Amino acid sequence: MNLKDIYYAERQLLKALPKMARSAQSAELKTAFEKHRDETETHVERLNQVFELIGKPAKGKTCDAIIGIVDEGKETMEEFEDTVALDAGLISAAQAAEHYEISRYGTLVTWAKTLGLNDAATLLAQTLAEEENTDKLLTKLAVASANVKAA
Predict the structure, then answer these.
(1) What does DSSP assign to residue 117?
(2) What tens digit of pLDDT does each residue of 122-146 get?
(3) 39 close to 130: Cβ distance less than 8 angstroms
(4) Backbone angles phi, psi at 86, to 5 degrees
(5) Which of 26, 33, 83, 93 could cross-link with 21 by S-S, CB 3.0 to 4.6 Å?
(6) What's the pTM?
């Protein structure tokens, strides 16, 4: 179930990240969103490989959690459009998605290891590490400038 949820989530984020990049005021944040969009394409490719490893079709299952997170991001873009708080709001929305993904990938890595699916665990762990790195980068951008400007 979590594998189908995260597959759905990643595909939703592929649509949301370009919009967030276009909305970002800071060049650094715009670049971070664009880079993570490219990484997200790789995450989907890895998930396709994991589905293949377990002999199941790559198929998502509607994930209400990510729908809510993406909707909150859209509301943030509308509410703070053209304000100094926009980037801080975008970072907050992006980190909500990252934290969701980190929790899902962490669980999936553990389950794959428990089931002896070492190749799947390796693929999932690679994505988990990238999600954690993105979260750290977003925190750095928030602390260095976005939150200060929004205050």
Answers:
(1) -
(2) 999 999 999 999 999 999 998 877 5
(3) yes
(4) -60, -50
(5) 33
(6) 0.91
Please give the helix or strand (H or E) that residue 102 lies within, else none: helix 86-114
Question: Left if phi > 0, otherwise alpha if psi is -120 to 50, otherwise beta: which for 55?
Answer: left
Note the residue count of the chain: 151
**Nearest 10 degrees: CA dihedral of 31, 32, 37, 38?**
70
- In the DSSP assignment, the letter for residue 80 is T
Q: Are 138 and 32 in contact (CB under 8 A)?
A: yes
Tell me the DSSP string of 12-79: HHHHHHHHHHHH-SSHHHHHHHHHHHHHHHHHHHHHHHHHHHTT--------HHHHHHHHHHHHHHHH
pLDDT tens digits, residue range 77-121?
A: 898 888 888 888 999 999 999 999 999 999 999 999 999 999 999
The Cα 102–Cα 130 span in angstroms is 9
Q: Retrieve residue 23's tokens.
A: 């909305």
Q: Which two tokens stand for residue 92?
A: 């907050």
Q: Which amino acid is at 129?
A: A
